[in-house]
Write a structure and sequence with these properties.
Layout lengths: L31 H12 L2 E6 L2 E6 L2 H10 L11 H7 L9 H20 L4 H17 L9 H17 L8 H17 L2 H8 L1 H6 L3 H25 L9 H11 L10 H15 L1 H16 L1 H14 L15 H14 L8 E2 L4 E3 L2 E3 L4 E4 L1 H5 L42 H18 E4 L10 E3 L3 E3 L5 E4 L5
The structure holds protoporphyrin IX containing FE (HEM).
Length: 474
């Protein structure tokens, strides 16, 4: 790793760093993404910070982020090796792995997701099916205010469950509720200052008590939960008829037996499964929670979405992916929610695999790179009035949907979100289904608050909302 205390001459500039702790106090960890975006105004689109002993380069704005992640993507494909992740995931799995292992696992997971997306037991069916459970659950509240957090987590987690385990869970299932709770707590601790400290001072922190030990215990328990599903799968696994991701993975282990290059084994299976949950649940459910809130905030936009859905789909059938092309306004609203919701504000960290040239600067091999997605999704050079909620920016004069290059909530390049297609499918089908059934509004006397809390994802602050059934189904 690159650990010089002084900024080398061709290195990107940045704020003055204290000895030892570096720029830890430059950044407000309750709004890291905003601090990092503001610093670009002083130091430019490519600047550097030192966190403890680790140099980081922050990339800002669409042009630079694209140049780095896409044009020079090969040089930025690695993840930094962080002590907390090494201790928890041992560099296995999908999200924090590197090199040959990462390539093999990523390729396999992408093609397996594609297989089930297009396969007989399609994900589309699983999503629509899940919506009916979720929708009924919410309809039972008869428009009374509720916090959508838990039910939406269950709804979205069940899609990953269908994909990897081949079945969903009842919302009352205690094993399932336990699984979700474990994930929530583990992710919360992960996003806290403890994780920062652990990564900065691992030798010390490994010995000290604190929540970082609890989080390791949670991950251990989660691995055990997945392992128990694996044991069940092996009992009636039939390679000729794969039911889910685990079945496909078992086949891959078997086919590659004796191949010295193979990275497929049961330990990696468990880790990849865990990573699909980690990366795929919180992100998607947070996006839906933003969606409900924005619809309550802008009732006239909600009405236009509902009118379009009424016209194109009606009330007698469920939406399908085929409808998307005919729902440009709804599609534009979804894009604008994802843009302004900014759910993964700083993407995930990358690391340089060789010396690279960016703008006027040389960044050495092994430096941590933060692709600041906030600075792209709110880039003044790309979006007019970026802080305004305006679905119209995704529509042309005829009301047709238009793609925008700077729309990269899933990041870009070699490490682009592996679940992008699945996530977009989930968000589209869930959102249109909710809009087909319900109207969202704030409880009497309450105004929607669009504040965020900064954690693993940028989430709305907890809120209660009312979901009223439409006339036809009421
Ligand atoms: C990585 C966003 C849903 C699986 C990422 C990254 C972002 C992201 C920004 C980091 C990319 C980078 O390093 O530059 C999102 C958003 C989602 C979403 C906004 C939903 C709205 C999902 C879903 C899945 C998933 C549903 C799984 C089924 C992954 C995985 C990675 C990843 C495995 C790591 C890829 C790698 O390191 O090679 N996602 N994601 N994501 N995402 Fe997603």
């Amino acid at each position: 790793d690159y650990v010089k205390t002084r900024r080398p001459s061709s290195f990107p500039p940045g704020p003055w760093a204290l000895p030892f702790v570096g720029n830890i106090f430059t950044v407000d960890f309750n709004r890291t993404h905003e601090t990092l975006t503001q610093l670009a105004e002083t130091y430019g689109d490519v600047y550097s910070l030192r966190m403890g002993q680790t140099w980081m380069v922050v990339l800002n704005g669409f042009q630079i982020v694209k140049e780095a992640l896409v044009t020079q993507g090969d040089s930025l494909a690695d993840r930094p090796i962080l002590p907390l992740q090494v201790d928890m995931f041992r560099n296995l799995g999908l999200v924090f792995s590197n090199g040959h292992l990462w390539k093999q696992q990523r390729r396999f997971s992408l093609s397996t997701l594609r297989y089930f997306g297009a396969g007989r037991k399609s994900l589309e069916h699983a999503i629509l099916d899940e919506f009916t459970y979720s929708g009924k659950n919410i309809a039972d509240l008869k428009g009374k205010p509720f916090n959508p957090n838990l039910i939406i987590s269950k709804t979205v987690s069940n899609i990953i469950c269908s994909l990897v385990f081949g079945h969903r869970f009842e919302y009352e299932d205690e094993w399932f509720i336990e699984l979700i709770k474990r994930f929530d707590s583990a992710l919360q601790i992960e996003a806290s200052i403890w994780a920062q400290l652990y990564n900065s001072f691992p030798l010390l922190m490994r010995r000290l008590p604190g929540p970082h030990h609890t989080v390791q215990q949670f991950w251990g328990e989660l691995r055990d939960m997945i392992r128990s599903e694996l044991i069940e799968h092996k009992k009636d696994w039939n390679p000729a008829e794969p039911r889910d991701y685990i079945d496909c993975y078992l086949t891959e282990i078997q086919t590659r037996k004796g191949d010295a290059e193979s990275t497929f084994d049961e330990e990696n299976l468990v880790m990849c499964t865990l990573h699909l949950f980690v990366a795929g649940s919180e992100t998607t459910s947070t996006t839906l929670r933003w969606a409900f809130l924005y619809m309550a905030k802008y009732p006239e936009i909600q009405e236009k979405v509902q009118a379009e859905i009424d016209r194109v789909i009606g009330q007698s059938r469920q939406p399908s992916m085929m409808d998307r092309a005919n729902l440009p306004y709804t599609d534009a609203v979804i894009h604008e929610i994802q843009r302004i919701g900014n759910v993964v504000p700083l993407s995930l960290r990358h690391s340089t695999t060789r010396n690279i040239q960016l703008g006027d600067y040389t960044i050495p091999k092994g430096v941590v790179i933060i692709p600041n997605l906030t600075s792209v999704l709110f880039d003044k050079r790309e979006w007019e009035t970026p802080y305004t909620f305006n679905p119209g920016r995704f529509l042309n004069e005829e009301g047709k949907f238009v793609k925008r290059a700077a729309f990269i909530p899933f990041s870009a390049g070699k490490r682009v979100c592996l679940g992008e297609n699945l996530a977009r499918m989930e968000i589209f089908l869930f959102f249109t289904s909710f809009m087909q059934w319900f109207t969202f509004s704030m409880p009497a006397g309450m105004k929607p608050v669009l504040d965020y809390c900064f954690g693993v994802t940028l989430a709305p602050t907890p809120y209660e909302i009312c979901a009223t059934l439409g006339l036809v189904l009421a």
